[in-house]
Structure formats: structure tokens, C-alpha cells
Amino acid sequence: MDPSTGNDPQTFYGWPVRKYNYLDGHLANDTRNVAGYNIYFIRLPELYLLYAYLLKDTDAATALEYVNKVHRRAWGYDPDSPSAVDYQTLADRTKTASDDHLANDPILYEMWAEMFGEMRWWEYVRHFRLGRQEADWYKTVSGPGAAKTNIVWKDRNYAMPIPTKEFESNPNPDMVQTPGY
């Protein structure tokens, strides 16, 4: 903290994504930081997109309408009225690059865009088993030759390890760690 910036180290938190930051009160050592909270709520646009995903193979018209409700609201249109930004099909071109695996998947693209910065996309990557596509896409956008492009996707990344405390508190001797951890 350089005094010339005028930033007070007791209140300055930098420039992270502001969602879910604990800016009131104090955390450990009087810092204000990303709190790592588990967020137990779901917003209406997320419910609409999950509903659309559920219906996409059996009632595509209703699924498309729910995707468009989210898309319209994001663009400032009335969610309940047709608009100039509506998708016409569930395979329409999205706003991402043409070689992105979400380029023609409005449901997943809108999930990514709507939940950006809310710590949810990884859960959807795991749920929809998009890890390999996400890793391959990241390699193309992170810069050729950069060390971070050396991602090697392993399907074991879909599973989460069982926390050590769970093993310590569980009397069942047959409990085993998730394979790969």
C-alpha cells in the first residue's frame, strides 16, 4: 500500500469481482477480502435456464421462451415480450467466438453469461461434463506459448474429494476417498 495512492489499508480491498465479497465488518486479521462463503441461493434467471435445459428435448418452444426471457432482460427489454435480440432456435448463434463450444448453444451460453462472476460456472461444467471443451477453449484464448495453455484435462476433475474432516468424523471403516484424490 503506497501512501501516495490515498488508499486506506483498513478499507481498501483491491479490484476483485465484487460479488460475494465481505465489505462490512472484519474477517481474519482485520482484512476485507473474498469471504469464501457458500452461497445458498439461486436467482430466477438461473431457474429459467435450468428449466429450459430440462425441456429442450421435449418442449423446445417453451425452453426457447425461457432462454429468451433471460436474454431479453439482460439486454434491457421486457422479459415477457418478443424483442429484436431473441434467439429463434435453441441452436442459434450466440455472442461468443465461432469456434467456442458455446457458439451455437444459447442455453449454456446464457448460463455462462448470466452467472459470470458468481462462482457457478464450474458447477455447470461439472454437471454438463464440459471440462474437455472448456480446457480446449481456454488453450485457444490464453495466448500461444503461455505456460497456462498447458492444461491437461482429466475426467477425475469432475469429482470432488471427500474432505478430511468427513473421514475423521465418520465412524464407517468402509468409507473411501473419491478415486484420484
UniProtKB/TrEMBL annotation:
It is found in: Cell outer membrane. Keywords: Cell outer membrane, Membrane, Signal. One of its GO terms (cellular component) is cell outer membrane. Coiled coil: none annotated. InterPro entries: SusD_RagB_dom, TPR-like_helical_dom_sf. It comes from the Bacteria. Residues 8-181 form the RagB/SusD domain. The keyword Nucleotide-binding does not apply. The keyword Membrane applies. Its main location: membrane. Belongs to the SusD family. This is RagB/SusD family nutrient uptake outer membrane protein. It comes from Candidatus Cryptobacteroides merdavium.
